[in-house]
Amino acid sequence: MKFTIKDPSDGTVLELTAQPEDYKGEQGMRIIFPEKDSFVIVEKDGEWKVMDETDINPDLIQAIAEGLKPHARYN
How many domains, the chain? Predict the structure, then answer.
């Protein structure tokens, strides 16, 4: 699924792609950026956690989580 967010660091609008992915037995989402960089996030206790990267801005993760909410409601 595609969705857009505003990058919290500079306000740039980004069109991201989210694809369901199994991460060590947990349901996660692979977030893919326009330049094809990606990482996996898993929702734990109502909070999205980055699983395979360590240097991701927490504000960016919050913006992604907000962008995923409308899609999750209808799935």
Answer: 1
Three-class SS of residue 52? coil
**DSSP secondary structure letter of residue 53:** -
Instruction: Provide CB contacts within 8 A for 15, sequence distance 6+.
Output: 2, 3, 4, 34
pTM of the model: 0.85
**Domain presence at residue 48:** yes
74 band by pLDDT with thresholds 50, 70 and 90? very low
Q: Which domain holds residue 60?
A: 2-69
Mention every residue, 6+ apart, whose C-beta is less than 8 A from residue 60: 7, 8, 9
- Tens of pLDDT, residue by residue over 7-50, are 999 999 999 999 999 999 999 999 999 998 999 999 988 889 99
Pairing of strands 13-23, 26-32: antiparallel
